[in-house]
Amino acid sequence: MKLRKGRVLAILLFLLGICLIGASVTYSVMTSPMDTSSKQKIEVLVPKGMTALNVGKVLEQKGLIRNAFFFKIYVKLNGVNAIKADVYYMTKKMSMKQIVALLEKGTNQNSNDIQVTFQEGKNIKQYAEILEKNTHIKKEDFLAKMQDRTYIQSLFSSYWFLTDAILNPEIYYPLEGYLAPETYSLKGKDVTIEEVVTTLLNQTEKNLEPYRATLEASQNIHEILTYASIAQLEAVTEEDRKMVVGVFQNRLSQGMNLGSDVTTYYAFDQDMNSGDLTIEMFNTYNPYNTRSSEMMGRLPVGPICNPESASIEAALHPTENDNFYFVADKNRKVYFTKTVEEHEQMIQDIKDRGDWIW
């Protein structure tokens, strides 16, 4: 009996040893640098109030750590009191210990710096409202600068992705679609319009750089950002946005209009939450209004909002399909159909189950 108990104890100790070794190896791997040879600096912005788990998700997304949940546990186990809101520049050769130490210390930036979030899918008028709320920049001053063609043209020499296409006189705001949505650290409430624009365009350049060769070769940057901006508002997931762009390309190839309500809202400066558009709006020509019969086979004259990188990716790599219609329900689920009859039936089905958006 004693011998049997001794064997059981030995087995348990052996298993415990295996678990401890496994845990030690896992800990070592999870806290080690992602790439000891990397020298690329990666920008990480931590807004005020962000939880350790959400900071971990940002770090994981940027390839700086392996797992966000493990990061949360590591922070707790190491008694980190607070993660400082700041803008950090990290490399993949940093260990988790080094990353956490930096986050705990902060970068000692100017205490007057403020963080301002420009949400994806917002347009320049909405950006102006955000700036007026968070800085000393007046909405009307920002919008006036955004329509100053001389100022806009002065930016061309600094940014390869700005082309003469944005100077089309029918475009409301030449930089619409070109100001990357992100949370930025700005130089206090007295930041200038020019400093804000430079900061946002610099981020756009970072976002577009991976696609630069493709975009410059095809010379369709403006077109891509226009597709991306519409897809941004028409769908939520990247998969649906790729399908949406594919549908738009199908319609244009057949000389149809895009028939996108979000472009009509933008054309007539209507809030998308204000309710249904009118038949008169649909039928009125406007270079942004793709519901108009006069926009057959044409994209709107420019982007209708500032899209995130995932929407730009969708515009660059749409999903080929044989659909010509789509509709979304109030839960933002998108349904794709081939014929107008199927489309109308889908709309009725959505209404019948109480999922119509209005």
Mind describing the biggest β-sheet? 2 strands, antiparallel
Q: Quote the distance from N terminus to C terminus.
A: 75 Å
Determine the structural class based on helices, strands and strand pairing: mainly alpha
Q: Looking across the biggest beta sheet, what order are the strands in? A: 1-2
The value of Rg in angstroms is 26 Å
**Sequence stretches where pLDDT stays below 50 over 5 or more residues:** none
What is the count of helical runs?
15
How much β-strand is present in the residues?
5-15%
Q: Tally the beta strands.
A: 6
Number of domains: 3
**Helical amount among residues, as a percent range?**
40-55%
Tell me what you see in this structure:
The chain is mostly helical and 358 residues long. It has three domains: 76 residues, Endolytic murein transglycosylase (Dna Ligase, domain 1, 2-Layer Sandwich), CATH 3.30.1490.480; 97 residues, no CATH class; 139 residues, no CATH class. It has 15 helices and six strands. Strands 1-2 form a two-stranded antiparallel ribbon. A two-stranded antiparallel ribbon has the order 3-4. Strands 5-6 form a two-stranded antiparallel ribbon. β5 and β6 form a beta hairpin. The chain is globular, with a radius of gyration of 26 Å.
